[in-house]
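Sanity check. The docking grid for heme C depends on where the pocket ends up, so I'm generating a full predicted complex first rather than guessing from homology. Inputs follow.
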Amino acid sequence: MRILTTAAIALALSAPVLAAPPTKPARLGLCAACHGENGMARIPGAPNLAGQKLDYLREALHQYRDGRRNIPVMRAAVGPLNDAELDQLAEWFSAQTPSRAAP
Ligand code: HEC
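Predicted complex below; grid placement will be based on this.
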């Protein structure tokens, strides 16, 4: 009995680790033309975002929105988004696996 209980607790605790990557953000379409849905850039000059550190992506998005990074295409893309939307996008791209395959 005790072993079963321990196993059940271990399973419950490990569940979040096994959880699927975040669901697609509603605003992903704003970014996909340049960065790809999977975070592998589709146009020259756009950076790959797949697998980038979550805190870095989140901070970069805030910097564009606030104008601390003054890049017109990115300011236009994130200007209308709220903090929760920026977080979802940062989590999405951070959770993607970088690939070398052509887009
Ligand atoms: C029209 C093309 C375009 C669109 C649309 C676009 N981006 Fe970008 N993005 C760029 C370019 C170009 C850069 C590089 C800007 C720079 O030099 O800082 C960039 C930079 C970034 C960076 C910083 C990466 C780094 O390594 O510092 C992040 C994060 C990012 N974009 C996320 C997004 C998200 C999220 C969206 C959708 C809301 C989006 N972008 C929409 C072109 C685009």
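Relevant for the grid: Helices lie at 2-18, 29-35, 54-66, 72-78, 83-95.
Also worth noting: The chain has five helices and no strands.
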